[in-house]
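It is worth pausing here to work through a concrete case rather than discussing structure prediction in the abstract. The textbook approach is simple: state the sequence, then state the predicted structure, then interpret. We follow exactly that order.
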Amino acid sequence: MAWRSLLLSSLCVFFISSSSLAKEEAVERRGNLRPSESEDEPGKGAVPYRYMLGLYTRKKGLVSAVEAGQADTVRAFVDKAVDFEQLPGEHDKRHRYFFNISSLSNDDVVSAILRVFREPTPLTVLEQDGPPERAELYTCSRGRRRRARLDSKNLSPKSGESKTWYQFDVRHAVRRAVRKNVDVACFELVVRSLRSGREVNVVNEGFGLNSRHTDKTSLLLVSSKSLGPRSITESPFIGALTNATAGSGGREKRRSRRKNASPRRTRRHGCMRRSLQVSFHDLGWDDWIIAPTNYDAHYCAGACSFPLRSHLEPTNHAIVQTLVNSMNPRAVEKVCCVPTKLSPISILYIDGKDTVVYKKYDDMVADQCGCR
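Step two, the predicted structure:
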């Protein structure tokens, strides 16, 4: 029908023009291929908040790998395509995604998934009876290196009328980038007609329509295992620890009034585990820690007096020291009530690059107490 052909032609012109205009604006904002150097404070403008919080709550997806011990960290990298130069008209039929993965330099990548959102367009709705197509994901060509195909997904004509997330396996590409110290991972999406074998415009097919600051932004989800110790003395905790000790006078006063802060009470009882409710709001960390809002860290307190009880699992040295102290208190101090078994907790937080991170930290909860 003539009216249908005219409408489809108009829609094609509209989407191609919109794509080119967006690329021209990106070039005006960024004149080179380097990512933005600015790093806002943690918590400012992070997009994958809801998605990662859902994984944290349900313990599904890549987060389940952390719980199973296969990985200890999951990061959700946001597409930084608007920070890079894309020449107008050069890739009208393709769409590129850029991710700053520099924070993976000290990690062993376990898995990596690219999540891409497809938004229905008037063209995809009208072409429900059209030929089947396939979305193909490649690495970006750089210099003499040609692009390499990573994964593909078939697109049924009926899928064009509904909002859909597509997931592509990019583990090998991310592992290679980390191994070669590449800070920015680049992927290129192509949509191809299965009937003709030709590429079609990805924007017309509903890909690449969403800006960075929406819940539909493309995400690179990477689960990894830290090669070094998982300590809260690392960034971003180290900065928060410094700020907390320097400017938390009001919160310190509130904590000092708590009943369990009195050392005299704990000395009257034997060594045992006690409750220690840690509030990230009281610590001033709630602006960048998403979950949990608080947890019971427990602590150990009480006297280690002679004779030491077996449930405290004292070492031979602790037994001898306690015996000497009971005979001559001036000779040596009493042994101390300390944690003898610790367990980890998982924390969902936002780092300084607006990356939402799910990470397991060791030795965060005192499970058992003893005299040492």
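Step three, interpretation. The first strand starts at residue 73 and ends at 78. Confidence is low (pLDDT under 50) at residues 1-45, 252-264.
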